[in-house]
Amino acid sequence: MNISFNLNRIKKEIPSNVLLVAVSKTKPSKDILIAYNAGHYHFGENKIQELVKKHNELPKEIKWHMIGHLQRNKVKYIAPFIHLIHSVDSLKLLNEINKQGQKNNRKINVLIQIDISNDLTKFGFSFNEINELFVSSNFEEFEYISVKGFMGMASFTNDKKLIRNQFINLSNLYEKFKKTHSLKFLSMGMSSDYLEAIECNSNIIRLGSNIFGKRS
Ligand SMILES: *Cc1c(COP(=O)(O)O)cnc(C)c1O
What we know:
By secondary structure, this protein is of the alpha/beta class. It has nine helices and eight strands.
């Protein structure tokens, strides 16, 4: 895999307002350094231990994105430095992030994960839950959290129409609350479906295998 070649090829084909998060999970720090030296600074991980280890050994300019299911008792390890948590899937987790933000005296940027696929294995709020939550709250009680938008993962399928419908549903939700809640980011799209996601309004894509090669 030619990491910097892949990065440049993808960056050329996506609009300039779309942020590319290079998903480096399971890949060694040396692979991240190659991308970093090619001018890429946004990386995504899904396991806290691995994320913290890589943060410790790599340049501090790197902006780390937490994209996997986050356990409440692990928020404290990333609270001092995390750039954006994509995967907030419960109110209890929001409360804990707020608490850790206060301890570190920093506002932590988060996205709310929405379960757009209804696959039983995926995490996230349902559309009903999120409508209730957003109508009843503008999150002012969370002084140390900035809710920046939504994240979703489409079903694992080749059915492009189904994927597109799931993305459109989330895009509609984003448009609905964008103004009232000052949302900025819609994180959808992985290696297999990022072009569809961008067509459906996504402005953060999370790509792993297209950049770093298959994970073993
Ligand atoms: C692993 C992962 C990705 C990247 O997957 P690829 O198919 O390798 O691009 C994106 N988002 C999440 C939440 C992931 O866990």
